[in-house]
Amino acid sequence: MSTAAAVPVLDNTFGALFLGVVLAMGLWGASTVQMYYYYDQYPRDAWSMKALVITVWSLDTAHQGLITHSAYNYLIRNYFNPAHLLVLEKTLLDMVLLNAIICQIVQGFFIYRAWRLSRHNLVLVTFLSLFSLGQSLSILIYYIKSFNFKTLAQLSDLFILEKVLNVFGVVSDFSIAGTLIFLLQRSRTGWKTTDSIVNRLILFSINTGAVTSLCAIFALIFVSVYPNTFIYITFYMLISKMYTNSLLATLNARSSVRGRGNSEDSASTSIHLSRMPNDVAKARTSLLTIHPLP
């Protein structure tokens, strides 16, 4: 009886961490399937794009390994050792750094699309980059400050910084998505086919921006309302997965966004373009080239 009483209730702490690992594993599986689909369907993509995909997926795989290791150490290896529940696993901390790297890479990809779509508007890109760099720098500062921490209780000293980095994440995602939507809206030509593509791209930009923002929003809410639980960690674990899946979904959606299949429809698309006015045809070609693949 005394042993059972010594074990704390773990539902909203390590139970939340465990659920985060399980959900993250599901999203990692989805990104793995998407990566296979990408390499199978787009073998002619530039080597730089292929390298980007495998790099982001590899980093996300390492992230999954780190959080799985943390959960295993807490809940399995140290089962019935409540004292270890106070210890800060280094792998749990390292996943914070990988989060920053993955977020920066994927946000950089979307910012580059905005740069192409805005016809190389340096002021706009600089504005978007500041929010993205602010998020990455705040995560890096968080990692450096907590590097020598030994217990989870010490992380409470960094709750303000935790809120700051999540605010940067939300603002950055909304700014990038909002910019892409504005630029696409401005690209309307009045030609039904072209505007149909624009509508699809706008909807896709809203979806990809929303999924990454929601994780940061929920992490911010729960770290503010329930700072003594790990519920916010559940959502924080999913952020890199959302970014990875958003990147791959963007690349894999090219055919559907263009409203055509593979080889058979290429000829009909060329014929259709030839019937358009020159300026409209150029706009449509530009949209297909720039968005979603730079």
UniProtKB/TrEMBL annotation:
Transmembrane spans: 16-39, 92-115, 122-144, 164-185, 197-223, 229-251
The DUF6534 domain, residue ranges: 170-256
Protein keywords: Membrane, Transmembrane, Transmembrane helix
Matches recorded under InterPro entries: DUF6534
Cited Pfam families: DUF6534
Protein name: DUF6534 domain-containing protein
Lineage summary: Eukaryota, Fungi, Dikarya, Basidiomycota, Agaricomycotina
